[in-house]
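Key result, reporting period 2: structure in, sequence out.
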């Protein structure tokens, strides 16, 4: 009985120490709507968003991107027919799954800020530029709005999943699409 109590007490203590030593999540800040990206969302303060082109935004998560294959992007399509443009983009993305290194893990429909969204999760093997033997996951969300569609993507290796997926999910949950 005494040994069980000591074991229980030691276990509780170790859990408290481990939880206390875990890195706290980065504080969140808000992405402000841009000219074509008419949405706001929260993201970790240590991510730096850049815009290499007028309708494409990418988060720089690590200062030295050669150490990881994680990236997040948002793009917007302002074509005259956003529904057909989105369908074409989804078909292009899914056409890759005919190749043996691409595998659909999940696909679902959900509402994001009241708009219909399609969410695809694809595992890709053999093409990771940083860790060649480790597959990566590509998650892509397509959100159709009245005059545009957004494509939001996350790419990460399975070993990097816990932190970045949680932060990505928080970003998605905080999206506010502006009129």
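The corresponding designed sequence is given below.
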């Amino acid at each position: 009985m005494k040994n069980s109590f000591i074991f229980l007490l030691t276990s509780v203590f170790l859990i408290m120490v481990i939880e206390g030593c875990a890195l706290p999540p980065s504080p969140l800040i808000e992405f402000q709507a841009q000219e074509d990206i008419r949405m706001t969302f929260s993201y970790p303060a240590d991510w730096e968003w850049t815009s290499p082109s007028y309708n494409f935004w990418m988060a720089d998560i690590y200062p030295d991107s050669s150490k990881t294959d994680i990236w997040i992007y948002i793009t917007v399509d302002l074509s005259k027919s956003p529904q057909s443009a989105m369908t074409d983009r989804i078909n292009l993305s899914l056409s890759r799954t005919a190749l043996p290194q691409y595998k659909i893990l999940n696909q679902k429909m959900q509402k994001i800020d009241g708009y219909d969204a399609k969410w695809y999760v694809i595992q890709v093997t053999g093409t990771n530029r940083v860790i060649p033997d480790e597959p990566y996951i590509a998650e892509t969300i397509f959100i159709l709005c009245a005059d545009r569609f957004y494509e939001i993507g996350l790419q990460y290796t399975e070993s990097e999943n816990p932190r970045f997926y949680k932060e990505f999910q928080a970003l998605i949950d905080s999206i506010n699409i502006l009129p």
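The mean pLDDT is 78. The chain has one domain: 26-177. This case is discussed further under Risks and Mitigation.
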